[in-house]
Structure formats: C-alpha cells, structure tokens
C-alpha cells in the first residue's frame, strides 16, 4: 500500500516538473532578453522605449544595437534579429520576400513621426532650401549634401522621396550624425542631412548643445515653407516627414511583440513625445469637471 502511495506521489511530481519546464519554455513578453537593431538616426527614441519597457518589466533585458536599416532588414530575414526599426517604405518585392521568408503577414507597427532635416552652421546666411535645390544638388558633382553613410536611413529616405535609387545620387559622407553637426563649420558651402531624433530631445543637455551649433533649414515646397514643428509632423506637411515603425519575425506573443504593443500604447507614446517626436497614435485626453 505504501509503495502504491509513493508511486502515485512520484507520478504527480513528475507531471508538475514537466509542466514547469514547459512553462519556462513558453513565450513570455515580461521576461527574457532581446536585441533591437536600429539606425543611428533614431537610436535615441528606441533606447528610451527600451528603458521604459525594462522599468515596467524588470525581468526583461533589451539591448539596442546600431545598424544601417537595410542591413538590419537583411538580418531580420535571416533570423539574426528578432525586431528592427525602419523608416523607409519597403518595395513590393521586399514585402513579398519578408512574407515568404518570415512566414508572417507584413504588418508594420508604426509608432512615431520623425523627419530628415537639412542643417547648416549657425552663422550661415542660408535661411531655407527648396525641393528643387535638393533634387538638383543631389545630382551635382559638387556633392554639397553630407550624409552619415551610404546605407543610412537618411539617404534611403531622401532617395525614395526623390524617386531615385541611392546609387543614382551624388553626396559626401561624414560617418555619424553627431560628427556631421560638429564638423559642418569646416565646410561652409555644404549642407548636412541628419535625422531629427539626433537632437530632438527638448531638455537634454547634449541635444541642446548640438542644436546650438547648427540651424535647421525650412523646406520650400509648392510655394510654402515648412519647418519641423509638431503640427507639420502630425499633418505630414513637412516634405521629409517619415514614420518610424517596428518590424519583427516573431510569430507568437513573446518579448518583441510585447515591446511593440507597449511602444504603441499611451505610455509608450508619451515617451515618444518626450523625445521631441510626434506620437503616431494620438490619445484623446478627457477632463471631468465637477
């Protein structure tokens, strides 16, 4: 009898042990490790969202790694990355490849409106720039526009806006957006091209310092000047407004999809706003008067 009881107890203990092991292996959005690939241009907002997520879910560890967005997309397809940040629109061929290799429907998780901006030294007499100047300058042998790299999100987006391939454009390169800002005064006839998120944080000391070195040129389009204030980003009036989005190859609700959901909720969107960018998902504030 005693042996029978022991066998029953051992049987139930083995079931509990197996179920615990399976539970440990099951998908979880609130614990585990993950790496996000993001272009340098929007690294700041990505890090801010990652920090917010880790504060809310202390058992998670998210590492943000800088990588050119085209290379990040390739790594996602090869399952070397679980989640990436993108800004340019994928071509129909790229979407087809994504859906075939990842075996998921292409559903970009949009979370912020950023912008590509054109900058000159603070003492430059230039006050604005037109779409025509940009288009012509990108075909000039003078290479008057300085980008942060040949595969950068900024170059990709400008090329897409001009309906060109990056290889068809002529430009100069200074690696790193911060380096462009700091070295631009050495090239008085050049125009820097960077992402707004490089220095968009309103009360950040480093951002304030970088902003003090240059001025952002309003862009003239169809006879009107547009700057990068929140209204122009929200309405996408500024010609080089771009929408940032997450792309994942995770098919279950694990940490990547948990992070995406968090970034698109009100809490995540508040972080986007604190970064000086325009939240993509707008939440109406209701005040009850008594």
TrEMBL record:
Residues 32-263 form the PBP domain. It holds the Pfam family PBP_like_2. Keywords: Signal. The keyword Metal-binding does not apply. Gene3D superfamilies: Periplasmic binding protein-like II (3.40.190.10). InterPro entries: PBP_domain, Phosphate_ABC_transporter. The keyword Iron does not apply. This is Phosphate transport system substrate-binding protein. It comes from Chryseobacterium wanjuense.
